[in-house]
Amino acid sequence: MLVGAAFLFDLRLLGFSKNLPVAGLAKHLLPWSQRGLILIIPSGLLLFITNAQTLGTDFTFWLKIALIAVGALNAWVFHKFIYKIPGVTREEIELPGSSKLSALISISVWIAVVACGRLLAY
Q: Boundaries of each DUF6644 domain copy (predicted)?
């Protein structure tokens, strides 16, 4: 839920489906990402607890944690600075080029997080 909704939003930022307003899509998709985050944090902690000693020394695990931090920082920067322009409603503006960069970073980071999660099993 987290990654799928984020991907759809990022694809819109990259210019796909220009007929959909970014603000409307954000209002619809981003709550799904938040709900997904609420579900995966406890499940991730429980999975970590079951194998903490091995995961604590696994490079792939720490890479995944670092990538999640980069993804969270990217989302924070986007919502705090790029997508927030004072005095202008979001429907009236053309998003800056930095929004495309943020979307590319987001897509790349979340693909890498999913790949690291799959690699942890091996």
A: 2-121
Specify the length of the chain in residues.
122
Q: Which residues of 82-97 are buried (b: 16+ CB within 10 A; e: fewer)?
A: bbeeeeeeeeeeebee
Measured from the Cβ of residue 54, the count of other Cβ atoms closer than 10 Å reads 10
Round to whole Å and give the CA distance between 3 and 97: 22
Tokens 């998003």 correspond to what residue? 95
CA angle in degrees (0–180, nearest 5) for 114-73-93: 105
d(CA 85, CA 92): 11
Joined tokens for residue 43? 């499940």
- Rounded to 5 degrees, φ, ψ at 70 are -65, -40
* CB-based contacts of 67, cutoff 8 Å, min separation 6: 109, 112, 113, 116
pLDDT in tens, 29-80: 989 999 998 999 999 999 999 999 999 999 999 999 999 999 999 999 998 9
